[in-house]
Amino acid sequence: MFAATAPTLAKGKGYDRELIKRMEDASGKPATTAATAFVDALTRLGAGKIAIGAPWSKTMDKSMVDFMETSGFEVVHSEVVGFVASIELGRVGPEQAYELGLRTDRPDADAIIMPGGNWPSMSIVERLERELGKPVLANNAVSLWAGLRLLKSGDSIAGYGRLLRDHLTG
C-alpha cells in the first residue's frame, strides 16, 4: 500500500497504475495506492459527486481535482488548508481536519474525501459522517480499507466511518 496521495498524483491519471505495477513486480504481491483506493471506495459507495477537503496548497489540489475528474467523479467543491511541508501537517490536531470537513461539505456532494497521509483526519470521520449524513473518506481509512481488501480480510472495523464498518466484504 502506497498511502501517500500527493506523490501518486504527480504525473497525472494512470501514474497510480504504474506505481501499482512497479510495487507488484518488486514484491510479487497485490498492491495499490491511496489515490486508487479513493476511486475504488467512492465507486463502492456509489458516489458520483464529491467535495475534497485537503491539507495542502491550491497548487497540489489541482492535481487531486484533475485526477478525480478524469477518474469519472464530479468535483462540486474543493477546499484547502494551505500546508506546504508535510512536517507541519503532522503537527496539526484532528480538530483542524474536522473543521475543514465541515467547510468542505456541499449539499450536492455525495461524499467528502480528505486526502493526505500525514493529516490526522481518520479519527474525525465517524463524527463528520453523523453530522453531515454522508460518507467521509480519510486518506488513511481508505488506505487501510484497500489493504485489508487485498488481504481478503472482511472483518468490520467500527469507529472510523461506514467504509471500514460496512464495506470490507464483497
Question: What is this structure, in a nutshell?
Answer:
The protein is of the alpha/beta class and 170 residues long.
Characterization of this structure:
The protein has a single domain (5-166), classed as Rossmann fold, CATH 3.40.50.12500. The chain has helices at residues 5-9, 15-27, 34-45, 58-70, 86-90, 94-104, 125-132, 139-150, 162-166; strands at 49-54, 74-80, 111-114, 136-138. With 170 residues, the protein is an alpha/beta fold. The two termini are 19 Å apart.
What labels would you give this structure?
170 residues; alpha/beta; Rossmann fold; four-stranded parallel sheet; 9 helices; 4 strands; 49% helix; 12% strand; globular
Q: Tell me the count of domains.
A: 1
Number of helices: 9
CATH class: Alpha Beta
- For this structure, the CATH topology is Rossmann fold
The CATH architecture can be named as: 3-Layer(aba) Sandwich
What is the helix/strand order? HHHEHEHHEHEHH
Set out the fold topology.
Blueprint (H helix, E strand, L loop, with lengths): L4 H5 L5 H13 L6 H12 L3 E6 L3 H13 L3 E7 L5 H5 L3 H11 L6 E4 L10 H8 L3 E3 H12 L11 H5 L4
Parallel strand pairs: 1-2, 1-3, 3-4
Helix pairs in contact: 3-8
